[in-house]
Amino acid sequence: MWIPTEHEKYGVVLASFRGTVQHGLPLEIGDTVQILEKCEGWYRGFILKNPNFKGIFPSSYIHLKNAHVKNKGQFETVIPVEDSVITEMTSTLRDWGAMWKQLYVKNEGDLFHRLWHVMNEILDLRRQVLVGHLTHDRMRDVKQHITARLDWGNEQLGLDLVPRREFSMVDPDEISVTELYRLMEHRHRKKETPAAASTHHLFVHVKSLMSANLGEELEVFFHIYDGRENRPLSERFFVKLNKSGLPKSPEKTERQCTLFVDLGSSDLRKDVYIVVHIVRIGRMGAGEKKNLCSVQYRRPFGCAVVSIADLLTADSKDDHLLKVYACNTESEWHQIHENIIKKANSRYNLSGSNTGLAVALQLLHGDIEQLRREYMVLFTRGVSITRKLGFSDVIMPGEMRNDLYITLEKGEFEKGGKSVARNVEITVYVLDIDGQILKTHVAAGSGEPGGDEYHSLVLYHNNSPRWAEQIKLPIPVDMFRGSHVRFEFRHCSTKDKGEKKLFGYSFVPLMQEDGRTLPDGTHELIIHKCEENTSLADYPRYLKLPFSKANLPSNNQTLKGTKESFWITSFLCSTKLTQNGDMLDLLKWRAHPERINDSLSKLKEIDGSEIVKFLQDTLDTLFGILDESSQRYGLKVFDSLVHIINLLQDSKFQHFKPVMDTYIESHFAGALSYRDLIKVLKWYVDRIVDAEHQDHIQQVLKASEYIFKYIIQSRRLFSLATGGQNEEEFRVCIHELFMSIRFFLSQENKSTTPVAQTQAVFLRTFPAVYGELLKIFTVREVAGFVRETLGSLPTAVHADCLEAVKLQCIAKTVESQLYTNPESRCILLPVVLRVLQAHMQEQRDLVMCARILTSMLSLIKKEENGTAEPVVSEEVELIVESLLGVLLRTILEISNRPQPAGPAMRLQFQDVTGEFVACLLALLRQMSDRHYQQLLQAFSSKDNLRDFLLQIFTVFRILIRPEMFSKDWTVMRLVTNNVIITTVLYLSDALRKNFLNDKFDYKVWDSYFYLSVIFINQPCLQLESFSPSKRKKILEKYGDMRVMMGCEIFSMWQNLGEHKLNFIPAMIGPFLEVTLVPQPDLRNVMIPIFHDMMDWEQRRSGNFKQVEAKLIDKLDSLMSEGKGDETYRELFNSILLKKIERETWRESGISLIATVTRLMERLLDYRDCMKLGEVDGKKIGCTVSLLNFYKTELNKEEMYIRYIHKLYDLHFKAQNYTEASYTLLLYDELLEWSERPLREFLNYPMQSEWQRKEYLHLTIVQNFDRGKCWENGIILCRELADQYESYYDYRNLSKMRMMEASLYDKIMDQQRLEPEFFRVGFYGKKFPFFLRNKEFVCRGHDYERLEAFQQRMLNEFPHAIAMQHVNQPDQTIYQADAQYLQIYAVTPIPESQDVLQRDGVPDNIKSFYKFNHIWRFRYDRPFHKGTKDKENEFKSLWVERTTLTLVQSLPGISRWFEVDKRELVEVSPLENAIEVIENKNLQLRTLITQCQSRQMQNINPLTMCLNGVIDAAVNGGLARYQEAFFVKDYVMNHPEDGEKIGRLRELMFEQAHILEYGLAVHEKFVPQDMRPLHKKLVDQFHLMKSSLGIQEFPAYVRASPVHFTNGSPRTCRNSVPNIISPDGGRGLARRSLPSYPAVNRYSSSSLSSQASNEVSNITGQSESSDEVFNMQPSPSTSSLSSNHSASPNVTSSAPSSARGSPQMAEKHKHSRENACLSPRDRPVSAIFPNPMDPAQRAAPHQIGDATLPRSDPNLSAPDKVRPTPSSWSLDSVKEGAPSFSDSFGKMLCPPVPPRPPYSGSSAKNMRSQSPVSASRSPQKTTVPPFTPSPTECQSTSLVSNSPVLSGSYSSGISSLSRCSVSEASGTELPVGDHPAYPLPPPSTLPNSVSSSSDEPIRRENKTPPPYSVYERNNPRRPVPLPHSLSIPPQADPPALPPKPHQLRTGSMKLDGTSDPRVPRPRPLPRKVSQL
Q1: Which residues, 6+ apart, have CB-to-CB distance to 1911 below 8 Å?
Q2: pLDDT of 1096-1144, one tens digit each?
Q3: For strand 257-264 and strand 199-210, is the pairing parallel, antiparallel, or unpaired?
Q4: Which of 527, 1591, 1605, 1745 is the right S-S partner for 1770, CB 3.0 to 4.6 Å?
Q5: Closest by alpha carbon to 70, among 85, 56, 81, 82?
Q6: What crossing angle do the helices spanning 1518-1525 and 1469-1492 adopt, rounded to 10°?
Q7: At what angle do helices 822-841 and 846-864 cross, to 10 degrees?
């Protein structure tokens, strides 16, 4: 049975448990678990990091830990009972662990490794703490180290600052908010500015001396030297080196390492140096040979210097190699270091090029005790301490030191009978009072132990040696008296066996008879001469002699006159001995009572360090004098006491205050002194007002704290001694003293008067007295003193400084021990509040006010302890009453002030705000229900309450601001929010009661809602963004405050009633922002408010347009900020739909909800796409989708324009310049050429509409230029030019015309790449909404082929699966939770056929019309229907043709557009065969034309094409078609195909004729080495002809080759000869195409000459036989991108009855596109339409299969090489025509169906309009009507299906002559395509047109503007034309497409006449809407 656990609540997993049992909970080692129940060795519970998943696990796997349980029961939380530092470490390391891995992922290697080391370090320290074997001090250090590391890591990872007290985390609920703020601020400051250490220490470690000429032992001396004052700052550190230059005692590290301690900050400057002197020990001369002499001398070796400042910058761990210098003359040795510092190079030189001293130098900072902890290794292994000369900056009381430093300066010696100067050595001894040498008390420096004696340097042959050697004599204090130092002088001979001969001595006593020590300074000592063997053991004898020349009596001239002297400098550093006589006199006052007055007067002149040395003795002396003669010396003693007390205020001696405190507590014995002290103090206070000089009185008042201490302690001693006698008398004295104080404080003075300054001095020291008074008086009495004293200050104080001091005094009062007592608070609080209120109202001294408030409120919290005591409650009430209003106003004032300039000021400013905010929060947190009730009842009027509410709501909004607290102060922010929500809940009642119904106040309610919304949206409350552990902690402590506030908003909203209308639509945006917060409960609460708003808006205005508009506006901005998600969209939809089910306005509501939901879908997609890194199709497609949604569905113009510019930026960044232009045109179209002013918008300045449109035009032209879309740029240039012209702005007009001209040049001169188009299907639910289950056609990038495009799409959609077939997917794919991509190439179907089919239009121009403004695309898929004949597969080869129509033409505002319509038709094998041959014929014609016009550099492409057709080895050639379709079986089985079979036969004959003509051309140009191949081709051609059964060609066939050229329309301008024949026979002026002449038979000449003659001699015959016309080539062959062949373009002169006249339906089943070639092998644009039968006409077909090739029986392998066409004419070529090098696959162009004439003009004689006004006038003749046959033009009844471009028919007829010809002969209509405009039925057409009917006809220019908006608003699909109609042959061809030079003229010219009715053809951008 499962039993709830009592004590077993918390544990750690010892071993991993898989949880394979039923209900098992898998555990990992190290997990922490909370246990709920137990049962027979099993526990049930959960892992703390995943509390939602509960299960069972074995109890043996768990190590139980003690834990404290909160909220016992279902929602209990367990807190482990362990050191809080351990708990914090554990949770922090867990948080870091996850983030640490992310650092690796983000490639932040540096932080990754640093954090790894810190984590390991913390884990190691954690083990130490857990083991529990650390000492208390060590534990403290470890914890400090841990918390420092935790804080560092948190800061680096951007985690929260943890408030701590004594290393433990603080629970914000357990301390007051003000205290929490202080802790946070303290930690923040500590983090920002680490305190600079005031003391520094230099670590020196001597490694070795490197030198070539060693061999003797060395002594190295270090000291710190002040270069500015030329004196040493420290004693010397002494190291002995052996002969190798290494330390002599390597095992004793303290002899090679030292710490120069107690350097002040002032010592770390450039002119402070480390000076090193090196002395060698050996022979006199360094180079002397070894002799018998074994005596060794100390001789100079060298010196090195390094500046301390260098150590501050250098890496402290590096060793330094110091250069060693030697002096040039030994007499300079004493100042060699000064010379090196001064760089006096002449006086020293390097002592060897490679001599150097290797030392480690490191500066350490901080207290010596701290260093001992931090550098334990250093101190444990041993380091000597080298002290400063003198005391450090701060003297510590317990410091014991007694060091005498003597420097051997110089000597003056006589020769003493020697011929040369002496070598003098000094030996120094210290002797005690008994004449015994003090052992080990002579030290050369720290490092080495002291010795018995010291030997100086020996300077060679120098009678005035200067040594400058410092020695240290650490003599104990008790041995000082009677001791003396003796200096013995010896001459060191270098000859007499090196003996040292004594010749004199000096001595100096260490203490004078009066007890003073040897004074500091330089002493000139007398050298007493003696013999070599004189014994100096008889010390009493020489001690009677004088020792110093300064002390000689005046009559002793003998010694005074001697020249020999010896100088030393002494310096005593002692805490026990003094050199000051006055000090000694005072201490020995009893011996000389007459000197007391003098001594007391001189005390002020004694150095402070001397006084503090003897502080206790001095104080005893003073109080001793006071007890014995208080009357006589009372005032003097009091002044001396004041002097000593104030001395301790000095920073140097401040550490002696505790010494004085100890003295007062333990040693002071003046039980009677209090009377005298009170009396003197009162005497001084009474004299304040009248005294002229206040300086001394101010000194007295400064010392009042300690004076009171002495008074109180004296009284206590007296009471103890006497049992409390004279108590009343003492109280009276104190009361009188305070009366005097109050009197002098009450004086009103200006701030400059001395009295006011004295008042300020007293107020500064007064709070320190409280604690002393409490020792004798009760709390209430002391509080009374304080209240009366502070109350006595004048209220209207003029002195600003006094006001500040008064506040400081109150601050100290509030912080004092007195104020912590509730009894005293009751008395003092009113005084404090009064002063505070006054200051805060006037906004003065706010820093101090904040400090006082903080202290007050932190005390209240301490007293409360969870339950408010009555006293505390009263205090809160008082503070609220006095300060709440003024506190709110203060915060508002501070927040609204401009920030001060200086950083320090700004910091202080910020502090004040933070402090006041903390005070406000603390106060509100203390307030209970009763306080709120009293507060709200206290307002006398509604207006006051209203102002208060507005104020507090505004302040709360300020508190929520992100900048209020530092980013990492989450703890503080959460506390703030908790207080705010609690307060708002109280205040909302007041809002409901006082400001509803008739008393409704919009401003208050608005402020309330605004605050609530900001509150919910704060970043620090968005728990979803936090780590799970942090989220759990916050939810446990505070819950989700957003939900609480949301419920409150909903509740308040419901209370509003009809007043809700005031907040519609203002609150829609804010509430929408709240609902976007990803908190389900909050959303469920808040979303219904929108239903309410819709309902009320419906009631008010009958619709909810306002609600809709506001929702849509805000959604865009909010979602672009990253708010909202798919869940929100679904929730919004479902909740509101459910809510409006029963409403009367349900339908319009559903519409609104659907609109908003669809907008959300698009916005979410847009946001997701924008997250991706690079610009890709997804982003652009998504932006287009959103842009169109705003335009079409929402009609939000401003949002539409914004997204136009976003789309423009995307295109521009991706270098899609054409698309960028089209995009910007959308905005351009919205503008007019008007002077209307436009506001500043996006990046546009404030300007007129004209200026903005001009700017847009120029930008668009520039982008069209970059995108090589120059034709579109020209139109805009013209429009701008017209504007400039209308304003007479000729300067800009000129520039614009030049720009336009440059664009024309670029069209003709620059090459354009022809893009490929790809159809992409996006299937599956995983695609974004705007792509899902849709198909698009995409314009590829330059040079991008299918494989590259597929790869790009798969990169953009990495999770997509590429479909390997082209069939339409089924529903399973559509509904799949995946992404499927289906991609294949498609072929464009150009709309502008008339341009493409026009003669002589250069390919550069045509290329634009082939690939621009494309709406439709084609794709062909071959398949076999029925049984496949293996012998001849053409019998069953069908083609499935799909035509895709887009929603917009390409290119446009996107590289891809959605497919709007898909149409599918099947092409029969016979039709397929017709198409194949037509395409091959077209290809042959093109190549022949290029070759003939010499545009082809190489004849190989023609050779290969001819070879491929004539010798079709792969597919069997035309014979296969004969076998398939010309056999009886097929004809019998397919009687309906009779006409098609005839057509196929004609095409085969035509191909044979073309081949013959091609061979003739080939013969002319073929190189010699390819003649054999040519001969072979001619032979095979004859075989092929015979196999086809062709002996001679019919006339119509022979005439047909004339039409496959692409004649230049400019022949009349440049008469080019030889335009037809291969050998250039004759050229005729080009005129209209005649009807076919009678058949010309071939002569029996050779094939090539036959073809040549035929081509040269074909003429058109008609009734006027004298008229002979050259045959006009067909423009249908001139397109750059067609796969279509041209139609025969001829009419037979045979009677129509003989040829038959089949129905249109039959005739138009032909298709002439090449659908057999793959996209690479076939012409790219194999996309043009074919006619079809009536049953199929409804669906336009697709052309071309992007992936699957079809077979061409005439195509052999060599034929697949793409030739490079350069011209399209077989009969003429314009000189200088541009040549093309594009691949053949992009050269051929489909014929375009002809345009209809202008409506209503069918009976008129239409004439072709040449682009150039030529002098040729068409012949006027009446032509009898005729019915075309299948061998004639195949599209006699068809017109152009292009709604936008006019142009000539594709029949190749450029102008009509009197010859009878079908006007529309030429191209067939695409299968399923219909003419754009209906024509009159045949019955309405006349049989003939009179010769006079050449009246010009009016035409509309239908060329589209080059952008999509125009096209969108024009019909893009043709109107069906009844197939039974045909175009009469009499009609003129339609107008040419508008060319730029035409558009400038006012009218179109026909036959040289102008028609005024013709409208200006230039299209202007169509207006979409107005801004």
Answers
A1: 1413, 1415, 1448, 1449, 1844, 1904
A2: 999 999 888 888 888 888 888 888 888 888 999 999 999 999 999 888 9
A3: antiparallel
A4: 1605
A5: 81
A6: 150
A7: 150
